[in-house]
Amino acid sequence: MKERPKTLPPTLRDKHRYMAFQVIGERDFKKDEVKRTLWDACLSTLGTLGTARAKPWLIKFDEKTQTGIIRIDRGHVEEVRFALMLITKINGSNALFRILGVSGTIKRLKMKFLREFGWR
Q: Could you read off the pLDDT of 44-90 as tens digits, one per residue?
């Protein structure tokens, strides 16, 4: 009989926050462009160690509404917010990130900040 891998109890798991954002730019951007820009901004602003500690991760990006969700370590939300505010271009096109809000769960984030964009 196979043993199932044990999962960590909630007290030992990393605590995350979820950030809703909107990309405003000259044109519509693809998910891969936004993901690459997010990583580059975090690496250039926070450095390799800071980015590793913040653990930014693009959960979802809607190319139609240009909105998305980023998962971040709980203690580094303001640092990632700062890194995103410094973005002025995506692949040579003028763009900026507008932070809509931060929440502890994806469900609450969608309810509070992304409902107007048609997220469910």
A: 999 999 999 999 999 999 999 999 999 999 999 999 999 999 999 99
pTM summary value? 0.89
Query: Mind listing the pLDDT tens digit for each residue in 14-51?
Result: 899 999 999 999 999 999 999 999 999 999 999 999 99
Please give the radius of gyration of the chain, using alpha carbons only, rounded to the nearest integer. Answer: 16
Q: How many C-beta atoms surround the C-beta of residue 22 within 10 A?
A: 17
Question: Cα-Cα-Cα-Cα dihedral of 47, 39, 42, 62, to 10°?
Answer: -170
Tokens of 15: 């605590």
| Best CA proximity match to 59, nearest among 25, 96, 94, 103 | 103
Identify residue 9 by its one-letter amino acid code: P
Say if domain 16-105 classifies as CATH 3.30.110.10.
Answer: no
**For helices 77-85 and 31-54, angle between their N-to-C axes, nearest 10 degrees:** 140
**What are the sequence ranges of the domains in the chain?**
16-105
Residue recorded with tokens 């800071």: 50
